[in-house]
Amino acid sequence: MPSPAFRLRAGDIVTRADLVVEYGGSVQSGGIVPSNTSNSVFVFTDPAEGRQFGYVYDGFSQDGTVFHYTGAGRDGDQKLTGSNSPILTHGEKGRSLHAFSAAGVVVGSSAKLQRYIGEFILDPDVPFERMPALDRSGALRTVLVFRLLPVSSIPDDVVELVGYSGVTREPNVISVPVEINSTEFFETADRAGGLAVRRESQLVDEFIAHQVGHTFTRWAINLPAERTRLLTDIYDEADRTLYEAKAIAGRSDLRMAVGQLYDYRRHVSVDDLRCSVLLPERPTADLRDLLREAGLGLAFREQSTFVLEPPDTSDRGERLRQ
């Protein structure tokens, strides 16, 4: 059956029932709806409804050239398959993609009104970004934020009514719990093997247990331009100290820790942030000098406790940190 000509203009108000009659689809089923009678895919955004599931990224970029739309999936990391597939494959399947935003309800009814935003295509260069969000239980996860490009100009008043997204192509940093459940958001390719990671995790747990009265979190660093996401080791909120843990107190591990901490602190905006390396034992004198001259502190396990050597705050250390 040939698809009916799409007659809506940006700003027109309809209901889902209207769309079903003319173009197919579904009155109730979710925010991403492929039509069953036309070559169309409809996406619906409703910030008031979606906020409870972490859908907080919908809206236009500040220059109006990109419409950001959060994918489907209320629990755990969102996947590229299933309900999100119609957006990803609309181009190769020759289907047009149309977006709508909630615009109140029909008078005397609970039926929602939908404002037509316009027709879009998925950005072929950067089709989506992964962004942090909370699921229904409050656990940290990632959601897919699709980058949709307008096929034709969208009136300014419609853009204003839909609103703007907080998504940016600039680096952004958020504080996250020490324990996270996301397997998608964080770059782990530069991490050590499984055994080393387990030893580092055990070392971190022991260190936290010894720091009575201190609160620890982590920093998640998103670098959109590189499509890279970094996860720091623990951050002590009381001492404003960021720790990078290593399972081995050897030279190669310490040199890696120095590079990681230098990279992280470029993005973590904390006044008087201090950075330290956490080790399972005391390193050699030369390696301790390396950390001291780099302006970094040291924490290491010694018998049943931990020894803390704070970063060097001398003029020499300050010059090296600049």
From TrEMBL:
Residues 14-156 form the ScoMcrA-like SRA domain. InterPro entries: SRA_ScoMcrA (IPR058712). It holds the Pfam family SRA_ScoMcrA. It comes from the Bacteria. This is 5-methylcytosine-specific restriction enzyme A.
